[in-house]
Amino acid sequence: MSSIDPRGIDAARAIQIVRDNFADFDTAKPNWLPLPDGKVSLDDLRVVAANAEGKFSPEEAQAAQFLVDSKAARSALDVGAGRGEVDGTISREDADGAWNSVQSGELDQRLLDTAAGLGGADGKFGAQDVAAARQDIAIAQTLKDALGKLPDDLPLQTQVQAALAMHRNADDEQALTQVGTLIDSPAFRGLNEDQQTQALALFGNNTAVSSAARQKLEGLDLNDTASLRKFMLTEARPTDLWRDAAPDSGVADSRRKPYDISGPETTDYEFASGTEPNKNVKEPALKYTVHVDGREIDVIVPASEARDDGKSYPTVDQIAKGLAAQPSPSLAATEKVVVNPYTPKETDKNGQVVDSGADMYATGGSFYVNPHGVDRPRVQKDFDFTFMHETAHLVRQPSGPFGIPMEWNLAVQKDQLFSTHYADDRYVADGGSAIDKDLGIDPGEDFAEAYMTYHLVKGTPDEAQMRALMPERFAILDRMFG
Question: Strand 295-302 vs strand 336-339: parallel, antiparallel, or unpaired?
């Protein structure tokens, strides 16, 4: 969180005011033809701050004066779109991008990135940035204090990330002690600079993920870098930690798309028989239609869904809400949702017919929900999250020359972290501590888990942390779905 100036405003609020009133700032400087040029300059800000003719609101004048006085906040706005270097002009795209950094939890880092008014938004901090930040009104005092105590035996980038971790947890003595212990440990000191940044992203935020991860520090051998690296690779599982902390209600209703439900119509449907693989049985069913995101998605449920058969069936509204939580690519790839009355059978590697291990699964544009016992009914987040994972198998997949997903697999090797207990399937041998170097591996579950994580946290305060943990994968997902 940025520092609140005595005038009652901080960098986040100043950025929001410029974004929401961009046209006022754009035409502030007197001109013979006061037409907007899509750019806000320092001169424009000074005119708004002075407000000599009373044309601007008090809040606009406050925000402008704050930005005149804060090179860090002004520079963060200047390169808010993430392109180019600080050049003294703020575009509407810059204002939108800077506001996105507020919403995603990246603002403090963005303020430090170009605090000296030099360079671009590259995530790299220079000594001039650190010196400028310590004098800037946009920088919180706790961050200034942390920047004054940088461990000078670590690389500068690690020093600044450590300062950010201390600032974020300034009100939590236990967290400060845990992070300090990590930073001072031989295991942490043995990591390279990128790995240290990743470790601080995992353990050093004031999020549910970091809080849960820090509780596992006591079980790690902090004298052994290899032990810490193995934990980061396959045992940290940040998306699992995030999902565990999420409320049973799942995605906030404000983040769901508008939807409505029509029907039902009576029909007969061929459900999986539950007796042998690839055998269906026709039974009476009800067909509803969920209207969401310009799509009409059929929902097929057994007509006998209310029967006392020891099974728990989701409501149609649970399914509709789950669909409303999905990104547009998932919805575009989904034609229908089927609630199976029986658990499908499959043949295992020994030739035995067994129950399918899938809770839900997607194939060929259809999404299937298998039955649960009444003793463990699903909650809304089960549908929100699992729908997103499974529909990831239906959307455009990462690929490359000759169908080989080289770029994704190189990203996996660079990130050196898997988001869930499921994601390292195919990449790491059971009990292993290294990623298979084969660039032809099918991304499979890793892509699905990364896709789910990306869309669940995008635009939330958790985005910055997940992006820092899997930067290479998130960069690809930005290109594919951003």
Answer: parallel
